[in-house]
Amino acid sequence: MKGHYASESVSVVEQLTRLLTSQKGRQWHWIQMIRVRHMYR
C-alpha cells in the first residue's frame, strides 16, 4: 500500500515538473497562482 502510494506521488511530481519545464506550463502555473490569490482575497 505504502509503496504503491509513493509511486503514484512520484508520477504526479513528474507530470508537474514536465509542465513547469515548458514555457506554456510556466504561464499556466502563474495564471493558476494568480487565480488562487484572487479567490482567497
From TrEMBL:
Protein name in UniProt: Uncharacterized protein
Upper taxonomic lineage: Bacteria, Bacillati, Actinomycetota, Actinomycetes, Pseudonocardiales
